[in-house]
Amino acid sequence: MERRRLRGSIQSRYISMSVWTSPRRLVELAGQSLLKDEALAIAALELLPRELFPPLFTAAFDGRHSQTLKAMVQAWPFTCLPLGVLMKGQQLHLETFKAVLDGLDVLLTQEVRPRRWKLEVLDLRKNSHQDFWTVWSGNRASLYSFPEPEAAQPMRKKRKVDGLSTEAEQPFTPIEVLVDLSLKEGACDELFSYLMEKVKRQKNVLHLCCKKLKIFAMPMQNIKMILKMVQLDSIEDLEVTCTWKLPTLAKFSPYLGQMINLRRLLLSHIHASSSISPEKEEEYIAQFTSQFLSLPCLQALYVDSLFFLRGRLDQLLRHVMNPLETLSVTNCRLSEGDVIHLSQSPNVSQLSVLSLSGVMLTDVSPEPLQALLERASATLQDLDFDECGIMDDQLLVLLPSLSHCSQLTTLSFCGNPISISVLENLLHHLIGLSNLTHVLYPVPLESYEDVHGTLHLGRLAYLHARLRELLCELGRPSMVWLSANPCPHCGDRTFYDPEPILCPCFMPN
User: Among 302, 336, 380, 485, which is most exposed with the fewest C-beta within 10 angstroms?
Assistant: First the structure.
């Protein structure tokens, strides 16, 4: 009798208005009506059609109906609950968030799995599953075009009578909580703290998974505490932008080695420590570089301002297991031996992006760079040699190899002392690269009035126009050539196309 009364109540709310309203409006009105009696709404979940769960959940979330949310999590008929999208752009109410996690708590402690329960993932990321709520609200498709799911099989815990099992035990699948983490001092708010407490208490059945992890300024003991609660094999994208010294990097290294599905790694600003011996320094470096043996999925490696890389680039690369798609070594000191090892490494044969920006190459012979470009010529799309101190004679040696980079789309070599004659020679070599659309080149040497870097703007405009005219003559007027150089006063980059876009240092008071 009670079940029949509930069914009638649901039908009266979801069907009686259908003559006068659109499906979407009908759902909104019915959800608001049902939530007026929260006890009835909770009791009705057993009979609620699957397609009405998302709109009712949205209404309960917006209206902060904590008890309804808690019950809906336990009866959620989809494998994923993308809560993060609902949280986007609003200040999440703590009690609302707690209600969802408390619903998981109840779910994970039940001996009998709810009949309709399918939940496997609570997704707290704000930029995933963007269409889920709009589709199920009726914005993108008919509400009634979605089939009813099959009933989930009940899962019972193993019971024993006189030492014998009365029922075969079914494995319990942990629920994953997906987050993107940015670790920085003062960033752990009350919501995050509550989540971490839940994960700590239910670590065996509630797995905190993180595809994107960013680490900024935060004490290492706090970082380690958080990483111990994260499923490290879930991390695919890691950025470490701290001002660590080598001993701190060594403490972090074992955690890096457990990120076996890591695809992208960015590491910057590792400084020397004067308090350790050379032997200890080598031990710490070896501890770090050896972790790459445990990263078989790594595709993109960005290292910036690593003090220890000179003379050790080969030590790092030989532990990288597969060819990389992106290699960015910037603002590091490298020896000629490092560049030779780089050109011979099997990891560079399939590069699509290569950046050596800020690596001083003035005293490096061009032949290893030439060999490097030849190795990657079939796949290289984006090449960055900014601020490398490359001279005219070095660039001339590289021109044939550059012309072999058939997939190249962007070339940037700003901040190098190159003359206009060599730039014209470069243009002739690149003109046949049909995929090349953007070239960022340095201000020609002839544009300077003196050794202090004072620009003669009229001369610069003339030289730029000369290159543009040459592009048109050679049949590539749409290829974008932008001249850029750091301002000698403030360091900001100034672009010229065709007239200079001046930084404030050149503007009259």
Answer: 336
